[in-house]
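Per reviewer request, we include the raw input and output of the structure prediction for the construct analysed in the revised manuscript.
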Amino acid sequence: MMPDFSLGTDVLWSLIALAVVSAALIVVPLVLERRGAARPDSTLRLALADLLNAAARPALIGGVIIAVLLLVVPGGMDVRFIRAGALLVGILVGVLTTWRMITPLASAVPPVDAADAPEPGSGEPGTAAAETAAPDTSALGAAGLLTAIAVFLLQASAGIPLITAAGGLALFLAALQAVRSVTGVGAISAHLLVGVLEREEKVAPGASAERADAALDRASGTLLRAVLALLLPGAVITAGGPLIGVHAVILGLIGVIAIQVAAVLPHLLGRLFPQSAVLRTAIGAGIPLAGLIAGLVLWLPSRYSQLRMAQAGHGFYDDPLLLSMFVSPNPDGSPPAPLNRDVLEPQMEEMARNFHQFQEGLDDSPAVQRVADEIVLHGQNPSALIGIALGIGALSALAIAVLSHRITAGELVQRQARTGRTGHIGAQLAGFGTTALVVTVSGAVLAAAGTGLLVLTTGNREFALMLTLAAALAAAVVLSALGEARSRVLTGAVLGGALIGLLVPISNVLGGTKRLPVLWEDRALRSDALSSPTILAGGLLGLVSAAILAGLLAEALRRTTADSVLDARDAADSGADAPLESRAVRGRTLALVPVLLAPAGISVAAFGIGGAALQSYVAVLAAAAATLTVVAAVRERTAVAALAEYHADRFGGRGSWGHSAVTVDAASARVTALIAQATAAGVAAAAILAAVLAPFVAQVGSDGSSPILRLLIAVCGVLVIVGMWAQVRGVKEPDLRDD
């Protein structure tokens, strides 16, 4: 069996290692749960099951619609069914792993009796317990097992199916985040607005909603790490296959193993270093990072010509312009036949060493620049480049994590609490200033890292994007060791890096289409120039799509908040807990919004503007997902920390004017974070699905279909958006008008 595996025995052993580690991550939590877990709260477990069902149904509806579209993309029926099946499998993985997490989450978040509750505002019930519990690794294990199965069956062609599965999982995550936003607003309304501001007594009318929100928050973070564990290897294999061959598969597999090890190692080190969380995290991230970097540096060759390209299906050169430099054209004028790489690589290495001699004679046409990039690659050291990229990713991740923690836990929080003594506006402005500072610092770190990667690749866009994915893989290892909830600023950076790598499969699909006879149609489908109107319009539509999703979520939550406050008041008057039953119904309505807006926005971009617009559309969505994740993390963390200062009897303590102002700011910040997180999940799912649907866009745009058909598809997308607006407008809200 070993010698027959076409990618090599080293890849096969990597697959076996990944499968074993993934199976352990799935099985061990089940064993630990049966042996020593606390008895789960049956009420909370039933509530979580209802909320999960509210997210699962819309996700499956959207998944079936997109799967039907995937059945008509170019390729054999086996390829079509694999892609459609991968999308549905991704959704089912999200549903099943979240279902499996319900019992441990209901155990980790202890029940809070309203009669014996702590004073309102003293904390968020259950959140601390949920954060300190052992990590649930079932979703991460399922992602690794899917990766191993896909590579074993599809080998070097596993990249797109893995991205498709990540798209399905992201679609479910978007639905779950929308449902969580409804529960979170109920918790905020009952806990802060009613419990703290209106009732300064020992009641907790939002205890159930707080516990459900804490549980869904932890589940969402776990699923997001699983999305990254599927998306990163898929994108690395897709982008790196034509550049580094089989070694792209190795990079993806070893990277996932490192992410998995980093997720559990800090917890396993708890007995050795029970008092030092920093040391546990440092060792937990350092060991898998060192293994990842050292292993790949030793594994990869130092000469580009020694890469195993043929085993990945890239053993020939077929570029007509490149071949014309070495081979005479055929007598009939047709281009020469493709040549084996081994025949041309010695000459290309010689040209790479002397590239400066004829660089001035090159023009700026895409075909010539593509050949120049290919020649320059033969003068590179793949081992050193990949190692440096991994190091840049790890160092950037550590810098972002440390700097963001310092900023959000130091003097700036004291300033925000102190400024709150002058009113809500002062506290809010201080929070916005801190958020802007973290976004600026994180952006500066990412810009410096991106510039370094671009310099390493001498401006080769495809190779720079591949190294960006490698850097994101290393950053994901650091994120896995820290835990998503402890470093959500870093989560945004890693998510943005992973999504930006999707530009490679999109540009490859669109660039590989045949030229169209009508000039404007050809440019709308194939253009990649930044100054192209199609590219500019696609980027603008990406901004509009993110704004529409955020606006619809905000409108729905506005209506939900009013109802939640009234429910909390009734519960406080009766000494009971605010009901959770209506949250699932409202959550199901809201979950449809990001699920259906994702394909609707893609259809408007691809068919209303042009297929080429998908590139800038995805780039802007990637930036939006990263920025929104950072904003949500910083805004919520600083506002809650400022409120904690008053609970510690500083700046006037409870009951003071500053306490009321900071409480309102904390409620506003948490609602903002809920909207930002749900929007980020929605636009991330849309970006991944855009890469998945790119072949469908290319086929419709290049097969001679009537422009009227493409316009009708875009109109259908607009109608879906209008329908979502109508659905949100139909969310029930109480009549608050004066009699």
